[in-house]
Structures are given as C-alpha cells and as structure tokens.
C-alpha cells in the first residue's frame, strides 16, 4: 500500500506557514491516499487553543480546495492541539505523553516527524528537549524539518547546525528550500542529463552566459519585521538562487541519488569565485523600491523604518572557477515590486562565429554579426515549460535570417495535477528521501559566498530608494551586463 505512517509534530502550528502551506499539503496527501488512518498531527504554539478550535482552523485552511465536508472533518479529526512554551521542560513531558497516546491509538510505529515552523532562535532549544525528554523514539524513524532562514550568515548557520547535530544526524535533517519542490526546478536535471544535445553543449565552449531571474510583483506584505532584518540577498539569493545555480552547474551525478547529487552540488558551490570586498560594488547591485502615487515605497511600508537600508532587489554576477564554467558569467536577479511575478532561467549560447548570410555587415565576424544567439529558456512559473530561440530563414526570396521560437508548455491538466512544492516535499520526507533538500555543506558554502557581499553592503551606505515599482530594478542592473557586452534576455 502507498500509505505512509507517521506522527507529525508542528512547532508553530498556529502560524501562517502551517495554515497556508502545510495543512493544505497534508490534506492533498490524504486525498491521494498517502496518508490514511495511520497518521496524526500535533500542533503546538503558545496560544491556548482547544482541539475543536484547532479542527476549525485546519478546516478553514482547506476552504479554497472546495473539498467534501465529511472528508475534511475526517481529516481534521487527526489533529491535536497542545499549548506549548518551547523553553518549558514541563511542556515536553506533556508532549511526550500525548505523542505516546497517539502513537498507540493510530498505530504509528514510532515514526515521528518534527516540523520547526517558527522563529529559528528556538530550533536549538526544541531539538535539545526532544532528545533530553525522550520524545524521539527508538523503534521508528525520527526526522526534523527546518524552515528557512537557516541562519543569518555563515557563523549563525553553523551555530544552528551544531545545535541540531547534538540531537539529529545529518540524514535526519530536512532543510526546506521550497524552490527545490517546484516542478521545473526538478526538471533542470532531467533536461540536462536526459538529452545529449544539452549536456554536450553545457559548458564554456558553447555557453555565453546564464541568467536567473526570480521576479516578484508584490512588496514586503506582512513580513516586515523578518524581511527588514534580512533583505533580498539573504531572503532569496543565499538559498533559492544558489540552489538553482548549483543544479544548473553541477557535473553529472554518478547516480540520481541524494548522496551523489549532494556531492556534485557541493563541488559546484565550492567552485564559486569568492569576491574580495573591493570587487563587490562592480559585481553586485542592490536596490530598494521607491514610492509612486499608488504604491507605497519600501520605507513607507508598515513597521519599516523610514531610514531603512534593506535591499529589496539584488542583481549580481557570479563566476565559477572550474574547467566547465571558467569565463561564463552567471547573472542573477531578484526583487520585490518588479514588473511581474515569474521565475525563469535563460541559457544564452555563443553566437555563430561568422555570418555568411549577410556580407553587407561591416564586420560579419564581430561579436554582434546580426545572428542572434540561441537561447534556451526554462520557464519555472507561472508558465511551466521551455523555449528555444534559433535563427531561421525568412520566408520568400533572399536569405535574410530571423530568430524564431520553439515553445513547449505543460498543458493545463498536467500543470493542475502537478503537486504544489510543499506537498511534494512532505511526500519526500515521509519516504525518507532528502534529494530535494538542502544539505549542510551547501548551506555553508552559499553563506560564505554571500557574507562578503552583505558585509560590504553593511559597511557602505546605499543611495536608496533607487527603482520604480513595476520595473525590472535599477539601471545599474542593466549596466552590470552591458559592461560585459551582454543584456538581459527578459527586459520587462
Ligand atoms: C520565500 C521568500 O522564500 O520565497 C519570500 O521568503 C518570497 O520573500 C517567496 O516571496 C517566493 O516564493 P514563490 O514560490 O512565490 O516564488
């Protein structure tokens, strides 16, 4: 049977993430039969809720799914609420009792999943108590899920990791990066290692540059306090973009397994060329959105200081010093209040070295000889698919060429059936498969790269705000590519 058996304990069970992502994802796993009779969920947080109230919260979280009411009630009956102060030993004793009771009642075989969906400064305390109060079992599996942010810089990430390591082995720790649960991010490995044409060309002999764009239309919304201490570099680049970069640049894993992929990703991240502080300004651009008549500027948002220097936009050039990638710039950018909400990756190939079709050009061997570069675009969202730009002959007389576009998109049914990132990742955790999670070494190398940039920025005042909402960021982000003779494929 495909049924998975486990007790989930969610720290932060009243929170936004639990309601927006976790409960709907668990419900979908229930609808698909991965969770049936043998599962239970303990939600903990400080508020004093009753089980009845908790069931209502869970049911409300599913409202947008328009599911059968009886099915929702049956699902919600597996949920138990326990008010919990994570620093109070007494509460862990109560938690242990409840866990054992549910384990017996639902025949959970000692399988436990602990989901830490709350402020990271408590992760260490929680882990320590889970061990000291014997909430971890001997007879089943114990897995812990850590939400981002995993640290604030390398030092704090290491402290957090050391604390977790006192209780859990690396293979019991699942660090969530929800981008790794996205269909098209998982597709990177499939297209690279499943197609001779791509893997043969996937190097500095054929690729001119690579562009990764994670664009958001919304502003900072409700997360001002967290975001203002973080900024776009920490919020999006250290984790999501570095993970995407490692998947794009890693060598072929010996087998498509967690361990082999991890080895290759770590090799790629270790090959990042670290910047010296004095190189940061030339290679990384930061931005913050300005007010318009209709939209608040970042500094006018609720709970943000009017003098805040937090970056809401980053663009950067990343170089990888290895045989495959030496000389190929990877341009990355992400920001809030940009032109649109989308994620895309553009692989820009080198142009044909000569244009035999147009002898009129002053220099048909020049960098821009009238033949557009081939571009392979991976559309991650909202469209899921691929585009390939190539040059073809204009219809009719003569031999003028023009770029044409080959497109493949997942059809609506496939896209609708594609599980949401959290559903996919929870399923992986139930299966004990950490392929699509971030491993410690990856986190460590990403932070080391990011820390230099952040430090330089902290030491130098920006002139903010510097970009208009609805654009693709400050002019400097375009100049960054122009200085190398390149331009963003997506201009906005
Ligand atoms: C999160 C960031 O990790 O990713 C948010 O903290 C951001 O600031 C979000 O909005 C974007 O995720 P998605 O899946 O909507 O692209």
Automatic annotation (TrEMBL):
Cite the Glucose-6-phosphate dehydrogenase NAD-binding domain residue spans from the record.
10-187
So what EC number does this one have?
Answer: 1.1.1.49
The residues covered by the Glucose-6-phosphate dehydrogenase C-terminal domain are 190-488
Q: What class of enzyme is it?
A: oxidoreductase
For the ligand (substrate), the binding residues are 178, 182, 216, 235, 336, 341
Q: Where is the active site?
A: 240
Which Gene3D superfamilies does the record cross-reference, listed alphabetically?
Answer: Dihydrodipicolinate Reductase, domain 2 (3.30.360.10), NAD(P)-binding Rossmann-like Domain (3.40.50.720)
Q: Which PROSITE patterns match?
A: G6P_DEHYDROGENASE
- In what pathway does it function? Carbohydrate degradation; pentose phosphate pathway; D-ribulose 5-phosphate from D-glucose 6-phosphate (oxidative stage): step 1/3
Per the record, the similarity remark reads: Belongs to the glucose-6-phosphate dehydrogenase family.
Decide whether keyword Oxidoreductase is in the record.
yes
State the taxonomy lineage. Answer: Bacteria, Bacillati, Bacillota, Bacilli, Lactobacillales
Q: Which GO terms describe its molecular function?
A: glucose-6-phosphate dehydrogenase activity
Catalysed reaction equations from the record: D-glucose 6-phosphate + NADP(+) = 6-phospho-D-glucono-1,5-lactone + NADPH + H(+)
Record's keyword terms, sorted: Carbohydrate metabolism, Glucose metabolism, NADP, Oxidoreductase
Q: Tell me what this protein is called.
A: Glucose-6-phosphate 1-dehydrogenase
Give the function comment from the record. Answer: Catalyzes the oxidation of glucose 6-phosphate to 6-phosphogluconolactone.
Annotated binding of NADP(+), by residue: 46, 85-86, 148
Top-rank taxon of the source lineage equals Bacteria
């Amino acid at each position: 049977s495909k049924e998975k058996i486990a007790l989930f304990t969610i720290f932060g069970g009243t929170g936004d993430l639990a309601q927006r992502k976790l409960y709907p994802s668990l419900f979908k796993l229930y609808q698909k039969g991965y969770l049936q009779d043998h599962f239970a969920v303990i939600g903990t947080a400080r508020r004093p809720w009753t089980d009845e109230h908790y069931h209502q919260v869970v049911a409300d979280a599913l409202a947008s799914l328009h599911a059968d009411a009886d099915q929702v009630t049956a699902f919600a009956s597996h949920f138990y609420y326990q008010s919990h102060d994570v620093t109070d030993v007494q509460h862990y004793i109560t938690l242990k009792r409840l866990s054992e009771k549910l384990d017996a009642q639902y025949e959970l075989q000692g399988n436990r999943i602990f989901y830490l969906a709350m402020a990271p400064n408590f992760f260490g305390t929680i882990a320590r108590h889970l061990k000291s109060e014997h909430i971890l079992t001997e007879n089943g599996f114990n897995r812990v899920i850590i939400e981002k942010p995993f640290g604030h810089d390398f030092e704090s990430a290491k402290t957090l990791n050391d604390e977790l390591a006192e209780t859990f082995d690396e293979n019991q720790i699942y660090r969530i990066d929800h981008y790794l649960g996205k269909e098209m991010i998982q597709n990177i490995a499939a297209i690279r290692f499943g197609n001779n044409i791509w893997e043969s060309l996937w190097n500095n002999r054929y690729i001119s540059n690579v562009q990764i764009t994670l664009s958001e239309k919304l502003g900072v919304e409700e997360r001002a306090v967290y975001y203002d201490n973080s900024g776009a570099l920490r919020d999006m680049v250290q984790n999501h973009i570095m993970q995407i970069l490692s998947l794009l640049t890693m060598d072929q894993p010996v087998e498509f397994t967690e361990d082999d992929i991890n080895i290759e990703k770590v090799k790629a991240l270790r090959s990042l060329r670290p910047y010296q502080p004095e190189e940061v300004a030339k290679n990384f651009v930061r931005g913050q959105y300005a007010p318009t008549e209709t939209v608040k500027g970042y500094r006018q948002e609720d709970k943000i200081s009017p003098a805040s220097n937090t970056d809401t936009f980053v663009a950067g050039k990343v170089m990888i010093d290895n045989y495959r990638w030496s000389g190929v710039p990877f341009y990355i950018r992400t920001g809030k209040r940009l032109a649109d909400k989308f994620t895309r990756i553009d692989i820009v190939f080198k142009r044909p070295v000569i244009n035999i079709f147009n002898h009129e050009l002053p220099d048909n061997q020049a960098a821009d000889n009238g033949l557009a570069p081939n571009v392979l675009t991976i559309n991650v969202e909202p469209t899921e698919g691929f585009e390939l730009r190539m040059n073809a002959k204009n219809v009719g007389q003569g031999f003028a060429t023009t770029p044409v576009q080959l497109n493949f998109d997942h059809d609506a049914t496939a896209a609708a059936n594609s599980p949401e990132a959290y559903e996919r990742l929870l399923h992986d955790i139930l299966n004990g498969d950490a392929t699509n999670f971030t491993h410690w070494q990856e986190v460590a190398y990403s932070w080391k790269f990011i820390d230099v940039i952040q430090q330089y920025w902290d030491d130098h005042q920006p002139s903010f705000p510097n970009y208009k909402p609805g654009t693709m960021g400050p002019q400097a982000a375009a100049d960054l590519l122009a200085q190398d003779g390149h331009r963003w494929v997506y201009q906005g």
